[in-house]
Amino acid sequence: MNDLDMDDIQKRFFVSLGLIWGVVLVARPFTKVTINYADFSANLYLSLICACFSLLAGRFGLNLLRGLASLIAGLLLIMLPMVTANYMAMSLDMPLADELLANMDAAIGFDWHSFIAFVDARPLLAAAFGEAYQSFLIQVVLVPALLLWLGYSRRAHAFMIAFGLLTLVAAVVAIWFPAYGTYTHYGYTDGQLANINSYFGFEFIEHFEAVRNNVEFHISSQGISGILTFPSVHAGVAYLLIWATWTNIWLRYPFLLLNIMMALAAVVNANHYLVDILASIPLAALCIGIVRLVFGMHRNAADPAVSSQPGMQPVHFDQQGSRMAGSGR
């Protein structure tokens, strides 16, 4: 990856981040949500430091460090507008959609009670779903860094923007589908199940009710939560992670399996109906299509990886992930 390529990637990356922030900041005054920016000052300052370090690394041709610093800055910058969008959507206090979502599950033949009973009766399966569900943040940090190290710089940055974009699109859709989710709708209590950890199916409720019922709601770093039910952001990100790792054969199948588990774990460990998981598929596909255009990936479907270390022979990967030392673009 040469300096001009990285310049192009970072320009598209930071402009996209600015647009995501812009959309949220323009829409926020029309809701009852406010942001305590002082609470998030440490994250904002750290993101600025990382952005400056990225520029400095670029001056010395250290494109791997440059890309890593920009991804860290991007992740720190993108979290606040993403969380704000969630709360803004739920603050509009639309009628609850639990009955509708439960009926949609029934219409496609999904028996939530039987599925939960099946998983709960199998401790190893329940534990596997729990681990997969909680791999969300680990993967969001690890996968872009791994892609960058393997030379897929454009894809790594595109994934991060797709992550933020998915949350915005999901928040817009969720305006009309606020819901408590399956555990509350079906009358379960936290700790009722033998092997399934249902903590995440209940921990968001205080925030969900507060943002809907209060005249004003302040977002603070002291407590934030994912409060969208339909569509599932958790599942949507799982699909983005499958796309991001699909280009390399060594990453493809492990992350495919893990993220299928993570998407289904939103039904098991959180508060989601199956239709929440299915509805995330077209949203993820839409976001992938957008970032492919934004980052110029439609012109380079193979997304070949190139070593970014100065003084080293460029190393490319073919579509199957095999190394092709010294090959050209």
UniProtKB/TrEMBL annotation:
Lineage: superkingdom: Bacteria
Region named Disordered: 305-329
Pfam families reported for this sequence: PAP2_3
InterPro entries associated with the record: Aur1/Ipt1
Keyword Cell membrane attributed: no
Sequence intervals crossing the membrane: 12-30, 42-62, 69-89, 132-152, 159-179, 223-242, 249-267, 273-295
Keywords linked to the UniProt accession: Membrane, Transmembrane, Transmembrane helix
Name of the protein in its database record: Phosphatase PAP2 family protein
